[in-house]
Structure formats: structure tokens, C-alpha cells
Amino acid sequence: MDFISILSIFVLACFVGYYVVWSVTPALHTPLMAVTNAISSVIIVGALIAAATAGVPQAKWIGLVAVALASVNIFGGFAVTERMLAMYKKKERKG
């Protein structure tokens, strides 16, 4: 595939992702975050495999960057999910 085809697929995926995320009702955001975390986990596994089998040193560095960014996405997703779930918990009354 040439660069224009790959770029076109990337741009279309960005638009589809944007409209899918912003059209989700608030009640479904927590499950959506869980799925996003699972996808990032798959990205980490793929990046580790790609970096391990790469013959070019630059590919190993790109794999390391992919692992780091996906890790930030996973931990950030868990933090946001935890905050969202905390909003639904009943607060204890004192006094």
C-alpha cells in the first residue's frame, strides 16, 4: 500500500473514532473505557513482539515508545474509569 492509502485509512479511522466516542450516552462511557483499555493492552503485546523481532535498532525504539504511550493510555483509562464509578457511589452522611 502506498502512503496516501495508509494516510486515508488513518484519517477515516480518526473521524469514525471521534463520532463513535462522542455519540455514546454517558451511561456507556465506563464500558467504552474498559474496551479502550483492552485494545491498548493488545497494542502493548503487539509492540513488544514487533520490537523483539525487529532487526533495525530504530524499530526497537519505536516499539518502546509504543509500549510507553499505550501504558499511559491504559493507566489513564483506569484512573478515569475509577473517577466515573466513584460518581455513582452513594456518599455516607455524617452526623
TrEMBL record:
Organism of provenance: Allosphingosinicella humi
Keywords assigned: Cell inner membrane, Cell membrane, Membrane, NAD, NADP, Translocase, Transmembrane, Transmembrane helix
Residue spans crossing the bilayer: 6-25, 32-55, 61-81
Compartment(s) of residence: Cell inner membrane
GO biological process entries: NADPH regeneration
Membrane topology listed for this record: Multi-pass membrane protein
The reaction(s) this protein catalyses: NAD(+) + NADPH + H(+)(in) = NADH + NADP(+) + H(+)(out)
Protein name per UniProt: proton-translocating NAD(P)(+) transhydrogenase
Keyword Transmembrane in annotation: yes
Annotated ranges, domain NAD(P) transhydrogenase alpha subunit C-terminal: 7-90
EC number, UniProt record: 7.1.1.1
GO molecular-function term, one example from the UniProt record: NADP binding
Residues making up the signal peptide according to the UniProt record: none
Species classification: Bacteria, Pseudomonadati, Pseudomonadota, Alphaproteobacteria, Sphingomonadales
Broadest EC class assigned to this enzyme: translocase
Superkingdom, natural source: Bacteria
GO CC field: plasma membrane
Function noted in UniProt: The transhydrogenation between NADH and NADP is coupled to respiration and ATP hydrolysis and functions as a proton pump across the membrane.
Primary location: membrane
